Amino acid sequence: MTLFDEKTQVLSPTTPAALPHSAGGRRPTPPRRPPRPPRRMPRPAPQYAPLTTGQAIARGILALISALALAFVLHLLVLSHVEHYASQQQLANTFRDQLAAGTAPVSEGDFDNVLLADGAPVALIDIPQLGVREIVAEGTSSGVLMSGPGHRRDTVLPGQIGVSVVMARAAAYGGPFGRIQRLQPGDQFTVRTGQGESTFDVLGVRYAGDPTPPAPAKGESRLILVTARGAPYVPTGIAYVDARLTGTAQPAGVRQTTPLTLPPSHTAMATDTTTVWALVFALQFLVVAEIGAVWAFRRVGAQKTWIVFVPVLLLASVFVADQATRLLPNLL
């Protein structure tokens, strides 16, 4: 076979001359790749000994306590404001109907001279400087102040001759009086009762230990707004806002409750222990629901257990958190 022609030298790709960089017609040896590091074998999952009965019980108790703490915080920071809004809607509807019918209370008794129950609506307070427009209920216990401002039973109604006291929370359950310390002397706000609308002038803000305003003159009407002082949800004291009626005071209604007979749970920063039985019942309900969920998890599986018991456990947790909140200071 001819490898050359007359004009052009043609090299066969199979000849050594076709590999100009080779020596003796051999292909160059490619560089060796560094050896790959050996692959790490996955570590086997650690094996733990099964929990003993005591450890399982301890784990369940810790999980229950954690769930209760989470439900309590969620209730105080979120759900309490929703409850306050719903309560105000109901109180506003009731009080509006009473005003239209002329049966709104003007004393500690209702239109039929029956002692007003705690939580009954008695007034509408409107503080435009703070954007506050709330129905005031009778009573100042922790449970009553969950629905909004409360009127202290041993004082006259706002606008009547004498001194009236209205208390409300500073942070939780809507925090109606959370900003009343911003009121300045001379600011005006109104309160509407069954005797009409009254306008009050702010005299000033004071705290524990500060001098009180002079005693009201004969026939004068005063109103004191009371709430907690300090950071939200961390009260450090009590704040008072004194106000004076600008117009003519209305006659005071009959009062059965006096400062001596006022229940301690209705004083400022007091707690309400009268419903501890309800808290015990709520805890029992939660424990029974927890036991039922554990039994169902082992018998019918996780999916059906979640569908059935999650709403039940949430309801029980909210019930417990609501009752536990009543043990906190009523101005929180």
Produce a short descriptive summary.
By secondary structure, the protein is of the alpha+beta class. It has helices at residues 53-101, 276-299, 302-325; strands at 121-127, 132-138, 150-151, 162-167, 188-193, 196-207, 221-231, 234-245. It starts with 52 loop residues before the first helix and ends in a 7-residue tail after the last helix.
Explain the overall architecture.
With 332 residues, this protein is α+β, with helices and mostly antiparallel strands. It has three helices and eight strands, in the order αββββββββαα. It has a domain at 73-266: Sortase, Chain: A, CATH 2.40.260. Strands 1-2-3-4-7-8-6-5 form an eight-stranded mixed barrel. Helix 1 (53-101) crosses helix 3 (302-325) and helix 2 packs antiparallel against helix 3.
